[in-house]
UniProtKB/TrEMBL annotation:
Predominant place of localization: membrane
Top-level taxon in the UniProt lineage: Bacteria
Native source organism of the sequence: Micromonospora taraxaci
Classification via InterPro entries: MFS (IPR011701), MFS_trans_sf (IPR036259)
GO CC terms: plasma membrane
One MF annotation (Gene Ontology) recorded for this entry: transmembrane transporter activity
Sequence intervals crossing the membrane: 44-65, 77-96, 102-126, 147-168, 174-192, 223-249, 261-282, 289-307, 313-332, 353-373, 379-397
Keywords, comma-separated and alphabetical: Cell membrane, Membrane, Transmembrane, Transmembrane helix
Protein's name in the database: MFS-type transporter involved in bile tolerance (Atg22 family)
Membrane topology, record value: Multi-pass membrane protein
Amino acid sequence: MTSTALGRDFRLLWSAAVSSRFGDALRTPALALLAATVTRDPRIIAAVTVAGQLPPLLFGLLGGVYADRWDRRRTMAVVDGVRAAVVAALAVAVALHRASVLVLLVAAFLLAALGTLFDSASFALLPALVPPDALPRANGRLQAGSAVAGGFLGAPAAGVLFAVAPALPFALDAVTFAVAALFVLALTPAPVEGTQPRSGVRRGSVWGEIVEGLRWLYAHRTLWRVTVLTSASNLAISGIMAVLVLYALDVLRVPPAGYGLFAAAAIVGGVVGALGSGRLAARLGTVPALGVVLAAETVALSGFALARHPVPGGFALAVFAAGTVVWNSLWASYGQRNVPAGLLGRVGAAQRMVGLLTAPVGAALAGLAAAAFGTVPVMGAAAGVFALVTVAAWRALRPVSPA
């Protein structure tokens, strides 16, 4: 799944990302299972989930600042080393039956907060490792590897390992972070250091640098419009995910025992989309391809909203997931190609922040609407949102700079 044409440093970055994703896929469900053994209060269990979702919104822009200030290779290695220590400590606490609710909340929050810095540094590092025209393919390979490691390997193994010993998935997660740190340290230092500002250059305040990144993003017409379109589509995607299990069980008549297989359709679609994103960008150009992807997603989501059987529903979900992954790969690649190296961390963080702002709104609206009207209207409304976003994209994404 890696590519020799992308070079040694990309293979190392790919290996680090896949290793970390495998560990994440072990830890996330294990953390939920662990919370359920500590308490049956749904409010507290939900609080553990929220603790892992807040840091990207609270610290995402700050992570972008330091991803531009510090050496990105060393930053990623240090962050993974610290995350390995945090998860190892959690594994020890679990083994000793000392994992209280407070411990789970702190661990979830701290790991997610560290992840914001890692994600910003990783996003900014990739353009220093591969040629500009290879960025869509490189991002696709990263997403495909992460999907396989997380969806096909890590997630199914998490429950089994937790049943054997509750501390086991956390201990293995600590190992994956340590391995990822070693892969990152093996990257060639020179290209990474070249992206950082020269020593002795006077910096502004942290807030000033955040504003600089936001202003650059807003001033770049195409990148800003793509970011807003991403935010609008995430409103629908978050709503879909919030009620997906209910729609699958009640409307598509997916047997409970077969829900895992049904959900795997989205993973398969995501992998196929990730591996094909580079070819699509090479054939159509990055910006024109974004409009085509949105149109395909709208058709797939409309079919999903009309489906009443697991097979056509699963196929439509796979196509929709493929489009989502392609969009994410091309969106990231366009930014990495057009943003100045010294601003990549901040602008990338701003992109992710704006893109994620609508997610909790979409989930909340979907939950309320499903409770009042059922899940079918939610899926229809999501398809309608995507249709509007597609029309807006075809009008707005007229290339004004090289794709």
